[in-house]
Amino acid sequence: MKSSQLKFRLILMLVLQFGAWGAYLTSLGRYLGNAGLGPQIKWFFAMQGIVSIFMPTLMGIVADRFIQAQKTLSLCHGLAGLAMIGAGLYCMGAGDNVQFGPLFVLYSVSVAFYMPTIAISNSVAYSAMGKNGMDPVKEFPPIRVFGTIGFIISMLATNFIKIGGVAMQDSYTQLFSSGALSLVLAAYALTMPACDTNRGESQSLAEAFGLKAFSLFKDSQFAVFFIFSMLLGAALQITNGYANTFLGSFAENPALADTFAVKNSNALIAISQASETLCILLIPICMKKLGIKKVMLMAMFAWVFRFGLFGAGNPAWPGVLLFVLSCIVYGVAFDFFNISGSLYVNENASPDIRSSAQGVFMLMTNGLGATIGTLAAGKVVEACDVFNTPANWSTAWYIFAAYSLVVGVLFAILFKDPQKAK
């Protein structure tokens, strides 16, 4: 296959992959608040972390050992899409009486099968590029940019499209959009280049189930890398869960209710993803010139500014500029951590455990880290009583910024770049 053709096919895969996520990730909290489920927001976003504790590793094992990665990707998206559409159907039928239990169950099934696809889609791309003689570290980031573009397109569609006079960001219709995109990718994934499985004739029990990837923890510096990935992963879902709800809270102030940041909060937050598209292109240069430690440190301190600027800003001019700056630094905070970390794991894990190792990275970041971080953030939000006293949002954001600062300082002291695995 020609390189140009392969790049196009990978681009389309990633547009669908992240478009399905972007359709609801930053706007779900706003809909839940409208439906009277504001106090339960933390559980919806924590569930993404809970399932990431085991599902990416489990499905990575399946992709490594039993079912080719592109077929595993298809299976996961098919189940995720059906469950998300089921969640939308429930909300449509429930009307103004949406209950936490049924919606949460359907949503949980969907994210349980969606979250592994983030790592598996990376494995599909890395495999196809490797077989085509391409260098993933150099050539994957520009392709990955289009995944973020897909995310942005979905976010903007959710912000501006109205169905029945109601914007999708305020409605359950965002769930239908996400589910439909997952089903399209489920079909498309079956057409992707075949990935190898590793079924050795003589394997230990740990090797047969892909648990060999956990041997990476024996390397002290790799263990430190994973532990701090977990600690930084605690920050990943905080703004996804609460930024849109936070911006919407300004609507209670008549002087701010009609500002762009309040009425089009999802579009404002989309600046974050636009920043990602630029920062992704910087990753090959930064990884080569600076190394993983400095790149990760840049991400950690970017999270400090991400949260701190939210705390200091407001929707009126010129305070809204602080929100814009927060969205701009998000590109560094997210990409320099997630994508650089994924590339680092791919380079340092042996070929027979790369999908499993990607699953372990997901477990530590979007699993343990995101679960602990989201639930802790929920406690902070509740302690600040933001739903009754919106002015207290600033205190919550400053607490999150202080946490990121402490993590960054400790990482600078404790982590050294491990040698690349041979």
The CATH topology is what?
Answer: Growth Hormone, Chain: A
Mean pLDDT, as a whole number?
A: 87
Q: Provide the domain count.
A: 1
> How would you characterize the largest beta sheet?
2 strands, antiparallel
Give the helix/strand class.
Answer: mainly alpha
Radius of gyration: 21 Å
Q: What is the level 1 CATH name?
A: Mainly Alpha
CATH architecture: Up-down Bundle
Q: Tell me the total number of β-strands.
A: 2
Strand order of the largest sheet: 1-2
The helix tally amounts to 16
Low confidence ranges = none
Topology pattern, helix = H, strand = E: HHHHHHHEEHHHHHHHHH
CATH-wise, what's the superfamily? MFS general substrate transporter like domains
In percent, how helical is the residue content? Answer: over 70%
Distance between the termini: 28 Å
How would the global form be characterised?
Answer: globular
- Indicate the proportion of strand residues: under 5%
Layout of SSEs?
Elements: H1 3-22, H2 28-34, H3 41-52, H4 55-65, H5 69-94, H6 100-131, H7 136-160, E1 162-163, E2 166-167, H8 173-189, H9 205-208, H10 220-233, H11 238-249, H12 260-263, H13 265-312, H14 320-348, H15 354-384, H16 393-414
Antiparallel strand pairs: 1-2
What does this structure look like?
The chain is mainly alpha-helical. It has a single domain, classed as MFS general substrate transporter like domains (Growth Hormone, Chain: A), CATH 1.20.1250. It is built from 16 helices and two strands. It has helices at 3-22, 28-34, 41-52, 55-65, 69-94, 100-131, 136-160, 173-189, 205-208, 220-233, 238-249, 260-263, 265-312, 320-348, 354-384, 393-414; strands spanning 162-163, 166-167. It has a two-stranded antiparallel sheet with strand order 1-2. A hairpin with a 2-residue loop joins strand 1 and strand 2. The longest helix is centred in the last third of the chain and has 48 residues, at 265-312. The protein is globular and about 60 Å long. It starts with a helix and ends in an 8-residue tail after the last helix. The mean pLDDT is 87.
